[in-house]
Design brief:
It is built from nine helices and nine strands. It has a seven-stranded mixed beta sheet, with helices on both faces.
């Protein structure tokens, strides 16, 4: 019950982020006492939520934690399939490697594996993917698509479109897709996609789509990348909320996956071509 109340309280504050809500109002909505509300507020603050308090006005969620905690994600999502199950790691070797193990064991369609840092992150052709902790969105999504192996590229296409849409939605900038698996912004790479799968001759058994999106990277420790890679922070000149961007990305991907599953291949192709680099 304690965890449920904390999650419900968080959801109420997220819906009113930046606005004060009276303690009595929160208590009535949650059917608990104002003192219990305060205890739950302290628990959320201990997990990194920045919540202001005013004696008359009540509580105001001012900032979500730096860490991409699953509870915060769950309470902000409006997805049907994507990220209804989340595995979260502060540090992992590779989200794709872990996701493939889960998929082989029968994980749910749309399961998300999320990490703050990878020690063995990989891109296409086994290139190393470098990203300091808490700077990027590093995740893998498990799919069980009804596709033949020859059509697997459609998953990479919907991921590309979802990423571009999420960047535009949160950052107000236009990114472009470079075939087969890169997203470019300002002439430099801002995101990479790695799709891995298991299949028999007729059917994809499962697929894992890994995403590495440079959000607040600065590349000061890797100057050799500065001529070819960029981040949303570098392009916008200010810090970008990884939380808001991740939620937008998951919701956009959920929309695109629904279109794919309902036969909207032509709509996906048109969206992809609209954002493709010529």
């Amino acid at each position: 019950m304690k965890i449920d109340n904390e999650r419900h309280l968080l959801a109420l504050l997220l819906d009113r982020c930046g606005t004060f809500v009276a303690a009595a109002t929160l208590a009535d909505l949650l059917h608990i006492t104002p003192a219990a509300v305060h205890r739950h507020i302290e628990a959320l603050q201990a997990r990194g939520a920045v919540i202001a308090y005013h004696y008359d006005a009540g509580y105001c969620l001012q900032e979500v934690p730096v860490r991409l905690y699953p509870d915060f994600i769950y309470d902000s999502l409006s997805t049907v399939r994507i990220a209804r199950h989340i595995y979260y790691f502060p540090r992992i070797d590779s989200t794709n490697s872990f996701a493939k193990k889960l998929a082989a064991e029968g994980a749910a369609d749309g399961t998300l594996v999320l990490a703050e840092e990878q020690t063995a992150g990989r891109g296409r052709m086994d290139r190393t993917w470098l990203a300091p902790a808490f700077s990027s969105i590093l995740c893998s999504i498990i799919f069980f698509p009804k596709l033949p192996p020859a059509a697997l590229f459609r998953l990479t296409m919907i991921a590309s479109v979802a990423i571009v849409n999420a960047i535009r939605r949160i950052c107000g900038v236009t990114a472009h897709i470079k075939w087969p698996n890169d997203i470019y912004l300002g002439g430099k790479k801002v995101c990479g996609i790695l799709t891995e799968f298991s299949a028999d001759p007729q059917q994809v058994l499962y697929a894992v789509v890994g995403i590495g999106l440079n959000v607040n990277n600065e590349f000061s420790e890797h100057p050799e990348l500065q001529s070819t890679a960029t981040s949303l922070r570098l392009e916008r000149g200010k810090t970008v909320s990884r939380f808001a961007l991740l939620v937008a990305l998951l919701e956009e991907l959920d929309d695109q996956y629904h279109i794919l599953n309902t036969g909207g291949v032509e709509a996906i192709r048109r969206s992809w071509e609209q954002h493709a680099l010529i």
